[in-house]
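Input set for joint prediction.
Command: fold jointly, output tokens.
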Amino acid sequence: MTSEALSSRATGAVAATGPSGPKPNKLTLSRVGVYAFLILAALFFLMPLWVMVVTSLKGMPEIRQGHLFNWPSMLTFEPWLKAWDTACTGRDCNGLKPGFWNSVKITALSVPVSIVIAMINGYALSFWRYKGSEFLFGVLVFGAFVPYQVVIYPLIIGLSKVGLFATLPGIVVVHTIFGMPILTLLYRNFFTSLPVELFKAARVDGAGFWGIFFRIMLPMSVPITVVAVILQTTGIWNDFLFGTVFAGRENMPMTVQLNNIVTTTTGIREYNVNMAATILTAAVPLVVYFVSGKWFVRGIAAGAVKG
Amino acid sequence: MTQVAQSGGSAAGLASAVAVKPRMRRRFNYQSVIGTMPMIATAVGVFIICIIFSIIWSFTNSKLFPNFNFIGLDQYVRLWRTDRWIISVQNVFVFGILSIGLGMVVGYLLAVFMDQRIKGEDLFRSIFLYPFAMSLVVTGLVWQWMFDPNLGIQEAVRQLGWTGFEFAPLVKSETALYGVVLGGLWNGVGVTMAIMLAGLRGVDAEIWKAAKIDGIPTWKTYLFIVLPMMRGAIATSFILQCTGVVRVFDIVIAMTQGGPGVSTQMPAIYVIQHITDRVNVGQGMAAATMMLVPVMALIGLQYFLQWRSNRKAGRA
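tokens >
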């Protein structure tokens, strides 16, 4: 659809140099207004993070006094330990750590698998088109817009027929499938932007499909692969729907377990433990975000279709 | 060769929107086919065959397991007689219009303010975008906590002395949906801002000079001259938000579980509930097929616009 606009944006967002707006006057009233607006907006965006952190560091008696925004008068790290180690989902009281390790496993497997496949797709679609390859690509792009609910049930049946439903390989397959449209688009646009002479020269030298892929294209695609890794790591870590449906009890990812811990608490709701668990779940993608900085923005722009 | 290219071109359909000029002549290379086997399996097996099966099962009375006892349109008749579904559809429309509308306005506004040669642009950008790095489940749970009627924002403001203050949208069925909209906006509006800002930066500097010479006030230039020039950025963020709206699931589950009552039910939840807890696959598939309709409509619109612009280009 607008993937053309998207891909140009992907590079445009980075290529653009400096603001193009009107030149600012000196410190006038309107300048103060601009900063006031931005700072107020920033406070709104930061507020939930602040609330999460302070709530997770308070004891329950202090929380019951209702000072949502106050810094804890008595700091405690108890909720963090509890969220990680002993918080209960139904009868299991192992905290979030099983979910964390499941998410690590799922992400560590799904990210490389989905990226390698998409890389080959993009490469083939740029240099080795065959009859029908463009049609397949069209179907994939369409797949980027299809509501997941339309394909989930047949996919459950299909995966259980081959014994992969509710298994670790099964959830990896699912993430690979649903990551494929956007990643293939990303790599296809990248490879078609490379000078074609590169490919021709290698052909003249007698290199074949895999030879060119491994010796030339793979080393050249490092920058775009960084974007793809960021996109997939955060996307798969944050996934909830596929984890609920396809992972099964054994491989329940962190997001699903977090939701279970928070929403199915019996007895007293421990808001501090809930918030500590929430921060723990958000921690990995947040670290990825703050470490990767501008690459992350590029990834979003490139992955805009993923939604 | 031209024939092959033509048939390929029309079959590519959507792909042609991703206009990249064909660089290689098509030659059959079995290694290329082997290398793209996963893609072939996904495109055909998942995005074609699975959808066909969903549609087929929507015409059957499948319960726990799928069967092929066709009962015509009964599932659809029942679907549109079910209040829960009708409310879901209404909800997704209200949710969609509000969150896309607000997302566009707020996103553009933030982008315009970010475009004023401000200090610390990177810092502000990081702050506006970081919620998007977090899962919608996290977003939902945080906002649920802040909207807590006894201990949340409402109580904090009341303790400051404004005792009549009311701000706990999730507990009332009339306002719960607005609470979800706010949470979703917090999570995603930074992306709209980033796309819009990139669009603003792409506008020719000459335009600004010309507007200045003509004495047009800055805000008018932004609203009436620059905005219409950013069609690409607007379309991108619009489509991005549309797909998000049709799929909306995680945030509602985390925030309200569809409640209170059915006030925040969504089609996506309806489908999942029918294939899991309610063991009524036929009904779930009918609902899923209905979810495909707006997507098909959008794609059809895209086709139409492309066809029209092609025809215009052909005439010129």
